[in-house]
Amino acid sequence: MSIPHIMLVKLYRTGAGIEYRVECRDFNPDGRWDVVGSVVLVPELPIYEFQPTAIWRKKRVLPPHLYGLGQRERVAEIRGEYRGYSFGAWGEAVHQCATALMRERLYPERLAYRWDVLWQGAARQTA
Question: 102 is in which domain, residue-wise?
């Protein structure tokens, strides 16, 4: 499997949070960037809320919040509520982007998913 193509594009920032549009080019045959959801970051808590669009739901992509759970809890959710869903890398990409932005407290206008770069930050945090 190739790396998922996810891009976060900042829409606005308020006192309560920062909203990003989530785009992906993997769900259509011509590779154009489609809006697949939005994510609102609340760094002070630190939490985020993801709202999928119809294409995300139609493709049965696992939601990003699952990747913030422990492995047992995540597997139980997938076997229960998300049985039959098969796309996980995209949800994990959104989770990694959201948590990296809040961890680093940097909120660029655009962020392309780069698994290797985002995990370097996580490794730095746990070292």
Answer: 6-117
